Amino acid sequence: DTAVSQTPKYLVTQMGNDKSIKCEQNLGHDTMYWYKQDSKKFLKIMFSYNNKELIINETVPNRFSPKSPDKAHLNLHINSLELGDSAVYFCASSHEIRQFFGPGTRLTVL
Amino acid sequence: DAKTTQPTSMDCAEGRAANLPCNHSTISGNEYVYWYRQIHSQGPQYIIHGLKNNETNEMASLIITEDRKSSTLILPHATLRDTAVYYCIVRDLSGGSNYKLTFGKGTLLTVNP
User: Fold this and answer.
1) Per-residue pLDDT tens for A3-43?
2) Cα–Cα–Cα angle for B44, B46, B48, rounded to 5 degrees
3) Alpha-carbon dihedral of residues A39, A44, A46, A51, nearest 10 degrees?
């Protein structure tokens, strides 16, 4: 069974559209994250949630709104998509020792 | 979290040991050394971590110098599937399960047949 899963794997959309990426973990972890990996391959944290509560928000534009309906899910909604939002987005969950990453969602904004 | 410095790229022959260095000269006493890797088009994968003693698991060994200012990740018998970007990260474990990993540029290890 996949520990951290994301859907969709690929997402191609036009500028100005609104889109969502879903993430689920079946590890029983309390903490989940969203990371962004840009075209230069830098991997940076965007948000973290602990038990459905926002803990880390790394100065991400407010067009990005994470939502955690329960501690096993952390979805990322993006409004008014821009060209610069094109990237691979990774979801992760963690216990104290290590983080587990999902397979990534490649978002392309045209 | 302390900053790390790694070579941009390294090559290794298949079946040989791959030794990946990392400098973390500003590491503080309560910070651990972590290694993750990212195989092309996949999410990062945890490899190993340590504080000051050498560590070994089924994937790799971690050698940390006595002054803790540098470390080496060792893949004892590299395979083609070990080709990936390897990230050395230092982090403080005091934050419980909620913490951010600060990824640098990492080292692209290419294992050649």
Assistant:
1) 999 999 999 999 999 999 999 999 999 999 999 999 888 89
2) 150
3) 130
Digit-coded pLDDT (tens) for B9-22 = 999 999 999 999 99
Tell me the per-residue pLDDT of A60-77, one tens digit each, with 9 for 90 and over.
899 999 999 998 999 999
Asked if A110 and A14 touch (Cβ cutoff 8 Å), the reply is yes
**Residue numbers in B near A58 (CB within 8 A):** 100
Q: Which one-letter amino acid corresponds to residue B61?
A: S
By C-alpha distance, the chain B residue nearest A47 is B100
Of A45, A96, A104, the CB nearest to B100: A45
- Identify any residues that bridge with A94 across adjacent strands, giving them in sequence order: A31, A99
pLDDT given at position B2: 61
Q: What does chain B come to in residues?
A: 113
To the nearest whole Å, the CA of B24 is away from the closest chain A CA by: 19
- Residue B12's nearest CA partner among B87, B61, B77 is B77
Chain B residues interacting with chain A (CB cutoff of 8 angstroms): 34, 38, 41-46, 49, 85, 93, 96-103, 105
CB contact under 8 A, A43 and B99: no
